[in-house]
Amino acid sequence: MTSTVAVSPGNRHAPHWRAPLALIAAVATVLLTAVGVAQADDPNTGSNQNDTSGGFNVTVPGSSSGGQGGGTTSGATYDPNAQVCFYTAAYTNVAPYRTATPPAGQTAADGQSMSQICGPAADIARARGAADPMAACGTCSGLFGVWIKNAAPSPAQIAQAAFANLGLQKPDIHTNPDTTSSDKHLVVGLPTWLWIDGKKDGYSVVKDGITIIAHQKVDWFADNVHVSASDCGNSAGVAYVKGTSDPAAKPPCGYTFTGAGSHSLKAVVTWTGTFIGGGKAGPIAGPAITFTTVKAIGVDEVQTVNR
Fold first, then answer.
1. Residues 54, 160: one domain?
2. DSSP-based three-state secondary structure for 142
3. How many independent structural domains does the chain possess?
4. Do 280 and 217 belong together in one domain?
5. What pLDDT, in 10s, does the model give residues 165-205?
């Protein structure tokens, strides 16, 4: 193990610690090797995450997943006497046990002080998750104050954090004819262009070599009635550009009011994400990001005189 290991004189099983520290560390290393603990489960490799139940998972040779030993299936018979180890934060900052400090080049945010508890698989099953693992085990030995470096974030974790910080914002609804002020109204029977501003579908960023892609879905409502797919679909609409857009053409996203008076438009914008990079790809976990924008408008009926 690359971490500095120290043994507290306050260990309950004092006879275990009367031997020289170097011998104890060597024995612990031999035990870990002898029982075949998977390298991927050694927290010092940076490939394991903290176990919120009170420790780190280790592989128990011959046990089935979720069984008495808490290990993984290996095809062999479960041996309750097999020597296994796990890591726990139960004794961190608890006197008289030693608490490790970050080594040179690391800070408290880079890892944490843990204790390594070793013993027979059957006893370890009782100890894991206990407030006092040593007392729950009864036959276990421990090394206190082992600095465990945090595992590097996975591509999926990088993507999830980046997606939550894309800077997506609540958009504004725009129309043509223009309704930017209360004295500007739409017209009954005249197709109205609809669009929202802000970032568009397919917006992407790259974070630590991972590409994060944001996917936008817009649901439009007129007077709380869903605007049909033929009028808008789920698009953000296209901005009307005076002098460029054809006012006689059917709007890419639009709605036609059939009655005068006070009306409302609403856009519900939903963002989800996908990522690719680091040899991985897929949807970004977690809730979608949703914004709802409502715009009150007036609609007038144009009177014509027939002669």
1. no
2. strand
3. 2
4. yes
5. 999 999 999 999 998 888 888 999 999 999 999 999 999 99
